[in-house]
Each structure stands twice: as structure tokens, then as C-alpha cells.
Write a structure and sequence with these properties.
The chain is of the alpha+beta class and 83 residues long. It has 4 helices and 4 strands. It is globular and about 50 Å long. The protein starts with a helix and ends with a strand. 8% of the residues are buried.
Length: 83
Amino acid sequence: GHAALLMGGIVGYLAHEHMSLDGVLQGPSSTITNQCIGVKYVNWSGLEFCDDALTKDKMDIICGTYHCYTGKSYFGNCNCSYC
């Protein structure tokens, strides 16, 4: 949820509509420290900050993306999204 809200735009709007802010306000999840999945920012003095990142798969879920595999060539398949 935290990463989706940070995306802003339609993704942030959709995330805000379907979740509470309580967990989001606690900051980055333990995924950052336990699995090293996220983004790293370095400020002008070299101090590093880490935060959650939204994977493409999770963004596709939020946006309602679906894939149609028709068995044809690459151009015969469709990838559709509401975002």
C-alpha cells in the first residue's frame, strides 16, 4: 500500500480508495530490510534512504491489467489496462 500511494497519479488514487492509511503511515515495510526489495535514495551528503517500490506485477493488479494469450504471434496477444 505504501509504495502504491507513493506512485501518485491513478495508481495512488486507486490504492487510496481501497485501503486504510494506518499501515501506510508506519513507513516502509520490512521487505526493505528482509528481502532487499525496494528503492534506494542517496542525498547530497551520501546518506542512504530506502523505501518500498511497487513492482510491475503489483501495479498491473491495481490497474486491472489482464493478458489474453491467443496462441498466435506476439502481435496476436493483447495486454489491456485501465490505467
